[in-house]
Amino acid sequence: MSPEDPHVPSTPSTVAQAGDHPRGRDERLALLDDLLGNGLHDDDHDLGELLAELAGDLPPVTPSEAARTRLHDAVAALPHAPLAPALADLLQVGLDRARSYLARLTDPSIWTEMIPGAWVHHLEGGPDTAAAEVGFVRVAPHTPFPVHRHVGEERNLVLDGALYHADGQRVGAGARFDLPPGGTHAFHTRDEPVVFAVVVWGVAFDGVEIRRT
Q1: Which residue has the higher pLDDT, 211 or 175?
Q2: How many degrees, rounded to 5, is the angle at CA 67 between CA 62 and CA 72?
Q3: At the top level of CATH, which class does the domain 81-204 belong to?
Q4: 3-state DSSP call for residue 143?
Q5: Closest to 138 (Cα-Cα) out of 119, 157, 113
Q6: Collapsing DSSP states into helix, strand and coil, what is residue 188?
Q7: Structural domain boundaries of the chain?
Q8: CA 99, CA 85: separation in Å to the nearest integer?
Q9: How far apart are CA 192 and CA 161, in angstroms?
């Protein structure tokens, strides 16, 4: 139907045009009532604009102490929550982002296989890690992680389980270990898997195809 079709009721535009004076609260309410009375359509943007304007009339609400306590307790109950400060320091990100990254560990779909028995989930670190590879690594039980050369520095934080260095040293959840550039490293898991966060400025695996995407 054309806009001139007599069977189509005309609806006055409620969108403020450039240069119009700001609408007052009463005017916004009247326009909202008019819009609702004329029916809504999927492509009607006026309602969203009006609701956004009306939302600006609402005073800010400060959460009660009880609400703050419930939120704190809910966050603290998340798996790995105590490791958020250490992860934030490792990745050079804020505490909230570190918590959101840790929350991903409950989702089994995040992982991409890098080698048989080991998976990676890439993350974005802070500005200081822009040139590094950043992510979570998960290694299955009884799996050797191949020897690799550190082109640059490598920083690690174990989040779950444990890994064992070539000399048999066990590194469990909550432990951080940093490795200097120029060396080689390998580790393995035993009866439990391991999940750790890593920031590495260049690493080379000789004779092993690594999937990085």
Answers
A1: 175
A2: 115
A3: mainly beta
A4: coil
A5: 119
A6: strand
A7: 17-61, 81-204
A8: 9
A9: 6
211 pLDDT more than 60: no
- Which of 207, 166, 159 lies closest to 183 in space, CA to CA? 166
Q: What are phi and psi of 66, to 5 degrees?
A: -65, -40
Name the residue with tokens 């695996």.
205
Alpha-carbon Rg of the chain, whole angstroms? Answer: 27
Helices (H), the chain: 25-37, 46-55, 65-76, 84-91, 95-103
Nearest CA-CA partner of 187 in 146, 128, 126, 149: 146
For 118, 137, 140, 205, the CA distances from 113, given in Å and listed in that order, are 6, 10, 11, 15
Residue 189 CA to residue 86 CA, distance in Å, equals: 22
Bridge partner list, 112:
120
**Tens digits of per-residue pLDDT, 19-62?**
455 667 677 777 777 766 666 554 555 666 767 776 777 778 88
SS3 115: strand
Tokens of 162: 């444990």
Average pLDDT, the chain: 81
If you search the block for the tokens 């609408």, which residue do you land on? 23
Q: Is the pLDDT of residue 133 over 80?
A: yes
C-alpha–C-alpha distance, residues 193 and 174, integer Å: 15
